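hey all, quick one before standup. I had two proteins in the batch that finished overnight and I want to keep them in one place so we stop losing track of which output belongs to which input. First protein below, input sequence then structure tokens straight from the run.
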Amino acid sequence: MPHRFAEIAFTPTVKKAQEELGSRNAYARMESVPETRNHRLSEAEAEFIAARNSFYMATVSETGWPYIQHRGGPIGFVRVLDDATIGFADYRGNRQYISLGNLANDDRVSLFFMDYPNKTRLKLFGRAKIVGLDDEATLSRLESSDYRARVERGFLIKVEGFDWNCPQHIVERYTLDEMRVTTAPLTARIAELERQLARLRTAASVAGASDHAGA
């Protein structure tokens, strides 16, 4: 259910396309539900964002070109500061500063948070504000103390709308840590079987030596 997401995304030309292709009535009914006009983050969205170790962020240049950037960090590096604000520390990278430059002209952003193993995604519209190094109080809420990288600034994003997207066509992907968790029972079982096999081999060896001595 889109929480004010449709109000932003469904422009007149988008609605016209929906009408021509037969989906407009269904979306119109969905938009009429009062809850869809509430863009406050609930506990479900906060927990989902806090569990992510990456996301994608789109900005638009003054020449009208969209730019999508992948952002990564330790799990929880995107902080939910309240039910309408998220933020993250901006660490030094390749120093192209494309997103930073785009935001100087247009503060609107679009974010995708992906959970590939569970085939779930959260789309979010917002307005970004740059936090300078002089704002130590805010940066202290955004930094990850155990992440060794140089902080150059922070980003605060006021949520304007969001929507949970359908799982269709999301391909399941796993990080190494997720694979270790998933395969942990199998790894433990293999280790136990190897120990049992070693004990059987030892017992057989002892029995063989005993029979040989008796002969």
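OK second protein, same deal, sequence then tokens:
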Amino acid sequence: MDSSLASRPVVGILHPGAMGAALGSALKARAGTVIWAAAGRSHATAKRAELADLVAVPDVAELARRAQVIVSICPPHAARAVAEEVAAALDGRPDPPLYIDANAVAPGTVRDIGALLGEPRVVDGAVIGRPAWEAGRTVLWLSGEAAPAVADLFAGSPFTARVLGPGLGAASALKACYALQTKALPTVWAALADAADAYGVRDALSDQLARDGVDLTVQLDALRARAGAKAWRWAGEMDEAAATLAAVGVPDGFSRAAAEVYRRMADGS
């Protein structure tokens, strides 16, 4: 493990949603303790943290004071604000923690977080898969100077940690590209169905698709089932994916369209 990390560091999780609770639980074997900030969090969050055996501290400031490693796992649109809150809490601390941004954000966003907190102390993380409670199903991709130290923390855990290299942004770029096929492509079914409804040709479209072996209703039901209550969160992820593409001159319109589809789903429209 990197010499800048204690052998059994205190790890702080911001915040223990379903994925955060799984990450926190996965780190218990290698951490001295895993803590989370209780202020302003919901009863559901508190219950998940309790079930994962995480230790509550009063607020982010206390978590930042105590932790040697902080994991940020929050809605994509909030990643920068969470990092800013941590930076404010760390002001004046002589031994800043290692900060793992495990959010579905654009490479530019995580590089901004690196500039805020100190690039050598920031690791870009990308979780691909479901919250992991058993090994073999979920990969945690890592990049940044301290990525090998973070991979060591997850050794033997349900999350398979893989290091991409020392550059911030590589893990986020991989996650964004992967999300285009898992989250952006399926939204085409909702877009074409809405357009067909507006033009009064939905039944004809369904019939024509059926001739090609495609059941439009099944595709739409599958999209709604996958997104469900997460549609608002996936909208933010698609915004970040669009920024990822635009930054390297790749057309980003379908990512932004996917974000709008998920916003409409979240609004019930």
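Flagging for whoever picks this up: Residues 114 and 122 are 6 Å apart (CA to CA). DSSP finds twelve helices and eight strands in the chain.
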